[in-house]
Amino acid sequence: MTATAVTPVGARTQWEVGGPAPADAIEVRAPAGIERYEPADMTVTAGAGTSFATLDAALAEHGQECPLDPRSPAATIGGVLACGLSGLRRLRHGPLRDHVLEVRFRTAGGRVVKGGGPTVKNVTGYDLPRLLVGSLGTLGVIEEVTLRCRPRPPCARWLVADGRALYRPAAHLWDGARECVLVEGVAVDVDAQTRGVAALESPPELPEGPHRGRISVAPARVRELAAALNGMVRWCAELGIGTVHVAADDAGELTRARDIAHAHGGWMLREHGGAPGDDGFGRPMPNIALLRRIKHAFDPDGRLNPGRIPL
Length: 311
What we know:
Blueprint: E1 6-8, E2 26-28, E3 34-38, E4 43-47, H1 52-60, E5 64-65, H2 77-83, H3 90-93, E6 100-106, E7 112-116, H4 128-132, E8 141-148, E9 150-151, E10 155-160, E11 171-174, E12 179-185, H5 187-194, E13 211-216, H6 222-229, E14 234-238, E15 243-248, H7 251-263, E16 267-272, H8 288-298
Parallel strand pairs: 1-2
Antiparallel strand pairs: 3-4, 4-8, 5-9, 6-7, 6-8, 10-12, 11-12, 11-14, 13-15, 13-16, 14-15
């Protein structure tokens, strides 16, 4: 790594996602604050350094939300998008990239680039916003984003699943002991759907530990994968999505969980901790040649966050 390496910094809530951040790099931060908010158009533009908590509070005043749902509300909008980790309500609201309409970012050479458009029905040009989601700051430093908003559900209720069919649940979690479902909507509809079903006093919690990862596998193989993980790590699966959150007290246990993910046709992204030398991904990218071409086009000198994605 050269002395000119640059790493974007947010709230450091997802600092260990993927590969390790470069040491001795120049740290840069994005501006914070709500730039424009049009409740009637259901779009909001904010500096990438704005925390999710700040954004959510501003939207809540108008009965709206943007369901990015990071693990920590202190996470910055730019950091959430750069890491690309969809929230627990993906089952209903879609992946993280679907909420991004426009981005303004700065290249390694200092050039400001804008991609997408501030309207929901924007279809012109290359889809740069989706390209930057999950890029871990290796293509550009996100400075400003325009997000799609939606009405905030007036009623949300976590339930213990009893096998009945529910209309478009927002989340469906399973930790091996019980299945939990989140139902959102108008209170009268939620009441009608959930009558007679045991409600939870608080939302279920994802597994915690010094070593954490996120497994992605075909949704049809989640239960098979979970059976192999039992007794080795703490886990919680998003049914219908194929994401399994795992946590362990020992780095070796997280490594073995990754091996199990590979054996079931999936892979695991390291979120925190892990064994020394862990590149965060555990296996070569299937589209590595394409990723290298894109990286070279945006950052030919390799200055932006070298090592966060193993290229």
